[in-house]
């Protein structure tokens, strides 16, 4: 009997053996040799683009990076000055659909393709806008002469004469690739559930982003950074590990995964990327604690027997922090690349003629039938 919620040809995940593939391609090869926009094309279309297709795709994305001025000047300015960037991102993503009257024409493939293009192109703009607003900084318009990650970094950090270090630009691209999709997680399931009602993709993606906003889904790398800060020094690692094992409150964040019972393949790539970033930014002072924590945990039978290995979140927060991103932006950085994964699943959902509107069964645990009693008799 098959109990899977859906059929999908997008991402293959073997948690027992630590394998992750996008459309059949190992994540290790894509992270080493590809770019985020090429991977985005792959996820959406099922095949890697040839040179002409890739050039066209890049050009189309580049020419859709701007957002409507009313979105920036009226909608965003309505947020409180200390609004959380992820809350702003979720709201802005939903509102974006109101600027396009054809957004609900989901039966029209040309319209679907246009919405997908718009969302892939504009999510970095929305993300950077949310950060600049929360920091009290003026908005930076997209620079279409830059690469996808380069444009995002420029919109984030440009004050005066700003130059992007190519090593940080590449690191951002790799992080985007690693977070582009991960099969049927909470956010992707939310995208499919809302999308099954034939809601427009902006609304559906906002639902997925809302799921990601929850700390159990998108907040793990933030929790890792806070854990490392609380540990304070490598000398405190053994005591922390013993406290985790005792079950007296402390938890080992960034280890273990609902699916992976082996080393998360993305974690290996991110660890290498961290060293590349630190060559530019200087070593994050929390790195030594993280390395000692990883070494201690992996050599302890308690964690090995429970198949608890580092996951993608263990080092990603250290990279973001070293690059200057505040902790409040970590989930937004997750949402930018994951948007294309959500859209690939939304597109696949609509093409599946066997897929109906989502209506899960429940297991009722309430009281049996009873009669209404007048208030005086209660």
UniProtKB/TrEMBL annotation:
Which SUPFAM superfamilies does this entry report, sorted A to Z? Citrate synthase (SSF48256)
Q: Name one GO cellular component term.
A: cytoplasm
Keyword Transferase assigned to the entry: answer is yes
- Coiled coil where? none
Q: What is its EC number?
A: 2.3.3.16
Instruction: Provide any one GO MF term from the record.
Output: citrate synthase activity
Instruction: Name a single GO biological process.
Output: tricarboxylic acid cycle
Which pathway does this chain act in? Carbohydrate metabolism; tricarboxylic acid cycle; isocitrate from oxaloacetate: step 1/2
Entry keywords, A to Z: Transferase, Tricarboxylic acid cycle
Which PANTHER family did the record assign? CITRATE SYNTHASE
The family note in this entry says: Belongs to the citrate synthase family.
Q: Protein name, please?
A: citrate synthase (unknown stereospecificity)
Organism of origin: freshwater metagenome
